[in-house]
Amino acid sequence: MAEQAEQLEAQGIQTVLADLVETSAEAFSQLLKSCDAVVFAACEKLTNAIDSEGLVKIARATELVDVRRFLLVSAFPEAERGKGASTSFEHYMKIKRQSKVDLVKTALDWTILRPGTLTDQAGSGKVNMG
Q1: How far is it, in rounded angstroms, from Cα 64 to Cα 42?
Q2: Are 25 and 64 in contact (CB under 8 A)?
Q3: Which end of the chain is more exposed for a tag (fewer CB within 10 A), N or C?
Q4: What's the rounded Cα separation, in Å, for the pair 7 and 115?
Q5: In a 3-state reduction of DSSP, which class is residue 51?
Q6: Hey, is 61 helix, strand or coil?
Q7: Residues 8-31: pLDDT tens digits?
């Protein structure tokens, strides 16, 4: 994560690193005071603690300091369908769906991105919107 923060900061983007499980919404709100927006992009083995409870916590912290813009990087609902998705993947998708519902219920100005299957490979420079 520190490497990603360095890359973002090199582009002039302020970053905040903190433990999503251990840090309270109130403590996060102090870290977010000077932010214009929050981007929440989490994909973790601790699906409930990160993608569900963590999202609710960060959304609450964002509301506490009146940062209005919130961008959630979620998951495309049909990703991996028909490919024999595991029980853990189905649970992950269920949590992702619920996190979107939780965000929509806030007073934030939210945007939800739903990319398809993500990889950790270099980009091709092309986007297929089909």
Answers
A1: 21
A2: yes
A3: C
A4: 22
A5: helix
A6: helix
A7: 899 998 887 888 888 999 999 999
